[in-house]
C-alpha cells in the first residue's frame, strides 16, 4: 500500500511533506490504525454503558498501577520551568507573537484553536519548520515587521485528537488519523533540529480517555524514534486530562507514557464538555447550570484539579493549569481590566493549589500568569516537591448535583448565539475567536451546543418557567440567523441544529463539520 496526498500543494509544503515524513506517517498508519479504530469503538461502548446507568469509577483491574511506586522520566530541556504557557494557532503572525510573548512554552495548536482545513494544517507545519530554523520573519503588506526575538518559548505541539481523520492523506482506501499526521510531519521535519538546539520534540496530547489510549501514543513515539534513529525517551508528552473518563485514569495514562511523560494539564473546557456528553441522557440530576456560571471552584471541578496536582507530583510530573476564557481588549480599558483581574484570580488559585504553571490565551496575559506563579515559585522552576494531602473519591469527581446556579433564558440565548457565531468563524477558517469578550474555541463551543442538546432532550425548565424545546431553540436560531452578517450564517445555523437539536447526538461537532472543509481533489478519491 502507498500513501497518497490529495490536498493542494505549494512549493513550501515540500519542506515538511518530505518522503521521510510520508514514510513515517505510513508506518504509523499501518501499525496503529486498527488499534485506533478499536479504541474509538471502545469510546462508544463506554458511552452506552454510562447512558444505561453505569457510573465512572477507578478501575479495579489497574489498582496495582495506582498503588505501585514509579515515577515518570525527568523533565527534558526547556520543560522544567513551565510557569507560563501561551496557546494558539500556528498561522505565521501568531507563531512569531507567541514565541516572542515571554511565555516559557508555546502550545502550537492543531486542535481546539484551529479549523483543520488542509491549508491550515500544512501551512502551520511550514510555519513551525521556519520558526525552528529562525527563518519565519516577515513584513506585512502594511509594512509591519515581525521578527523572532533572541529568547523564545519552548514549542510544544498539540496534534489533533484521535477521533479526527485527515481526509487529504490516504493509505490505500483509508484516510490517516489527523493526530498521526500532525505528529509525524512535525517529528520527521524537526526532531533533529530541535535536539541540536538543546530542545526536543515535545507534544500535548488532547482528549485522551484511557490508559489504553496513552499506550497507543506511546507505541507511536517508540515507532517514530526507532524509524528516525532518535534515542528512545527523547520525546516528551503532556497529556490533557480533559475528558471525564481520563480523570479516573490519570495514573494509568502517566504510567503508560512514563518514559515520555512530561505532565498532565487540566483542560477544563473539554472536561466540562465531556461530562455533559457522557451524562446527557441521565435526567435532571446531571444538568449543569448556565455555561458561564460553572466556575473552577464548583465542587466537581475543584475535585478534578486537586486530584490532578496530587497525581502528577506523586509521579514526578508537572501539573499544568488551564485556560481562563477572559480575553483582554486593547481598545476597551474596562473590559481589559476586568479580564486581567479575573485571569489573575484564576492563576492565583492554581498556583496556590500546587500547579507548576498555567495557560494563557493572549500575550497581554503572560505577565499576570508569570507574576502569580513567581510569587510562589520564586527561583524554583516548579513545585513538584509539594504533594497536596487530598483524597478525592469517585463521588467527588461526579458531584455535579452540588453545582450552584440555574438554567436561564440568558444562558440559552448565549449558548445559541456563541455557538452559531463560533461555527461561522470555524467554517471560514478561524478556530479561535473572541466573542463577547471571551475566548471561544472548539472546546467552549462544544459546551454551548451540548448544553442546548441536554436541555432540550431532558425537557429542562428555565428559571422563568418555560421549558427548553426543539421548537423554541429553532425559533431562537431563526432570530440569530436574521441578525448575522456572516456569509456562513446559513451553514453555521444548519450545523448547530444538527449538533444541538437533532435527536442523534454527534460525538464531536468537528466530526459533523469537517466534511465541509475537504478540498474537491480529496473528495474525488473518497
Ligand atoms: C480550551 C482550549 O483548548 S484553550 C487553547 C486553545 N485556544 C487558544 O489557543 C486561543 C488562543 N487565543 C487566540 O486565538 C486569540 O487570543 C483570540 C482569538 C482569543 C483573540 O485574538 P485577537 O482578537 O486577535 O486579539 P487581539 O486583537 O487583542 O490581539 C492583539 C495581538 O496579540 C496577538 N495574539 C493574540 N492572541 C495570541 C496568541 N494566543 N498567540 C499569539 N499571538 C496572539 C494577535 O495576533 C495580535 O497581534 P498583532 O498586534 O501583531 O496583530
Ligand atoms: O484544551 C483545553 C480545554 O480546556 O479544553
Ligand atoms: Mg481541549
UniProtKB/TrEMBL annotation:
<keyword id="KW-0808">Transferase</keyword>
<dbReference type="InterPro" id="IPR019830">
    <property type="entry name" value="Malate_synthase_CS"/>
</dbReference>
<dbReference type="InterPro" id="IPR044856">
    <property type="entry name" value="Malate_synth_C_sf"/>
</dbReference>
<dbReference type="Pfam" id="PF20656">
    <property type="entry name" value="MS_N"/>
</dbReference>
<dbReference type="Pfam" id="PF20659">
    <property type="entry name" value="MS_C"/>
</dbReference>
<feature type="domain" description="Malate synthase TIM barrel">
    <location>
        <begin position="154"/>
        <end position="399"/>
    </location>
</feature>
<keyword id="KW-0012">Acyltransferase</keyword>
<dbReference type="GO" id="GO:0006097">
    <property type="term" value="P:glyoxylate cycle"/>
</dbReference>
<keyword id="KW-0329">Glyoxylate bypass</keyword>
<dbReference type="GO" id="GO:0005737">
    <property type="term" value="C:cytoplasm"/>
</dbReference>
<keyword id="KW-0175">Coiled coil</keyword>
<protein>
    <recommendedName>
        <fullName>Malate synthase</fullName>
        <ecNumber>2.3.3.9</ecNumber>
    </recommendedName>
</protein>
<dbReference type="InterPro" id="IPR001465">
    <property type="entry name" value="Malate_synthase_TIM"/>
</dbReference>
<feature type="active site" description="Proton donor">
    <location>
        <position position="441"/>
    </location>
</feature>
<dbReference type="InterPro" id="IPR048355">
    <property type="entry name" value="MS_C"/>
</dbReference>
<feature type="domain" description="Malate synthase C-terminal">
    <location>
        <begin position="407"/>
        <end position="516"/>
    </location>
</feature>
<feature type="domain" description="Malate synthase N-terminal">
    <location>
        <begin position="4"/>
        <end position="63"/>
    </location>
</feature>
<dbReference type="InterPro" id="IPR011076">
    <property type="entry name" value="Malate_synth_sf"/>
</dbReference>
<dbReference type="InterPro" id="IPR006252">
    <property type="entry name" value="Malate_synthA"/>
</dbReference>
<feature type="active site" description="Proton acceptor">
    <location>
        <position position="158"/>
    </location>
</feature>
<dbReference type="InterPro" id="IPR048356">
    <property type="entry name" value="MS_N"/>
</dbReference>
<feature type="coiled-coil region">
    <location>
        <begin position="22"/>
        <end position="49"/>
    </location>
</feature>
<dbReference type="InterPro" id="IPR046363">
    <property type="entry name" value="MS_N_TIM-barrel_dom"/>
</dbReference>
<comment type="similarity">
    <text>Belongs to the malate synthase family.</text>
</comment>
<keyword id="KW-0816">Tricarboxylic acid cycle</keyword>
<comment type="pathway">
    <text>Carbohydrate metabolism; glyoxylate cycle; (S)-malate from isocitrate: step 2/2.</text>
</comment>
<dbReference type="Pfam" id="PF01274">
    <property type="entry name" value="MS_TIM-barrel"/>
</dbReference>
<dbReference type="GO" id="GO:0004474">
    <property type="term" value="F:malate synthase activity"/>
</dbReference>
<dbReference type="GO" id="GO:0006099">
    <property type="term" value="P:tricarboxylic acid cycle"/>
</dbReference>
Amino acid at each position: 500500500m502507498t500513501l497518497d496526498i490529495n490536498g493542494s500543494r505549494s512549493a513550501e509544503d515540500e519542506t515538511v511533506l518530505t518522503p521521510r515524513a510520508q514514510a513515517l506517517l505510513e508506518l504509523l498508519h499501518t501499525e496503529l490504525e486498527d488499534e485506533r479504530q478499536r479504541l474509538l469503538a471502545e469510546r462508544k461502548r463506554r458511552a452506552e454503558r454510562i447512558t444505561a446507568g453505569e457510573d465512572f469509577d477507578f478501575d479495579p483491574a489497574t489498582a496495582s498501577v495506582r498503588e505501585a511506586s514509579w515515577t515518570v522520566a525527568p523533565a527534558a530541556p526547556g520543560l522544567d520551568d513551565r510557569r507560563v504557557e501561551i496557546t494558539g494557532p500556528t498561522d505565521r503572525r501568531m507563531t512569531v507573537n507567541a514565541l516572542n510573548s515571554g511565555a516559557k512554552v508555546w502550545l502550537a495548536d492543531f486542535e481546539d484553536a484551529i479549523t483543520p482545513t488542509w491549508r491550515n494544517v500544512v501551512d502551520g507545519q511550514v510555519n513551525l519548520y521556519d520558526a525552528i530554523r529562525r527563518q519565519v520573519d516577515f513584513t506585512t503588506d502594511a509594512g509591519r515587521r515581525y521578527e523572532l526575538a533572541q529568547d523564545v518559548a519552548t514549542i510544544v505541539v498539540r496534534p489533533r485528537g484521535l477521533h479526527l481523520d485527515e481526509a487529504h492523506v490516504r493509505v490505500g482506501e483509508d484516510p490517516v488519523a489527523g493526530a498521526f499526521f500532525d505528529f509525524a510531519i512535525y517529528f520527521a521535519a524537526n526532531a533533529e533540529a530541535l535536539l541540536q538546539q538543546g530542545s526536543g520534540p515535545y507534544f500535548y496530547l488532547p482528549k485522551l480517555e484511557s490508559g489504553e489510549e496513552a499506550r497507543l501514543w506511546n507505541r507511536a513515539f517508540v515507532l517514530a524514534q526507532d524509524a528516525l534513529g532518535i534515542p528512545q525517551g527523547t520525546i516528551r508528552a503532556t497529556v490533557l486530562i480533559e475528558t471525564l473518563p481520563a480523570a479516573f485514569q490519570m495514573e494509568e495514562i502517566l504510567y503508560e507514557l512514563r518514559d515520555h511523560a512530561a505532565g498532565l494539564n487540566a483542560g477544563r473546557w473539554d472536561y466540562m464538555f465531556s461530562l455533559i456528553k457522557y451524562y446527557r441522557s441521565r435526567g435532571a440530576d446531571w444538568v449543569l447550570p448556565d455555561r458561564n456560571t460553572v466556575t473552577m471552584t464548583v465542587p466537581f471541578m475543584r475535585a478534578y484539579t486537586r486530584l490532578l496536582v496530587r497525581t502528577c507530583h506523586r509521579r514526578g510530573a508537572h501539573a499544568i493549569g488551564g485556560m481562563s476564557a477572559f480575553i483582554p481588549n486593547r481598545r476597551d480599558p474596562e473590559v481589559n481590566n476586568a479580564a486581567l483581574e479575573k485571569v489573575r484570580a484564576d492563576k492565583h488559585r492554581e498556583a496556590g493549589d500546587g500547579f507548576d504553571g498555567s495557560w494563557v490565551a493572549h500575550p497581554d496575559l503572560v505577565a499576570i500568569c508569570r507574576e502569580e506563579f513567581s510569587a510562589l515559585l520564586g527561583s524554583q522552576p516548579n513545585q513538584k516537591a509539594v504533594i497536596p494531602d487530598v483524597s478525592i473519591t469517585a463521588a467527588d469527581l461526579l458531584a455535579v448535583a452540588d453545582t450552584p446556579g440555574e438554567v436561564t433564558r440568558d444562558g440559552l440565548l448565549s449558548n445559541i448565539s456563541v455557538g452559531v457565531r463560533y461555527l461561522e468563524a470555524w467554517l471560514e477558517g478561524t478556530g479561535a475567536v473572541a466573542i463577547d469578550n471571551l475566548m471561544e474555541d472548539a472546546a467552549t463551543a462544544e459546551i454551548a451546543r451540548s448544553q442546548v442538546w441536554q436541555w432540550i432532550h431532558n425537557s429542562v425548565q428555565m428559571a422563568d418557567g418555560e421549558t427548553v424545546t426543539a421548537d423554541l431553540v429553532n425559533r431562537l436560531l431563526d432570530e440569530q440567523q436574521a441578525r448575522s452578517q456572516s456569509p456562513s450564517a446559513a451553514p453555521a445555523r444548519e450545523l448547530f441544529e444538527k449538533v444541538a437539536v437533532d435527536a442523534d447526538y454527534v460525538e464531536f461537532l468537528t466530526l459533523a463539520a469537517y466534511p465541509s472543509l475537504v478540498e474537491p481533489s480529496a473528495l474525488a478519491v473518497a
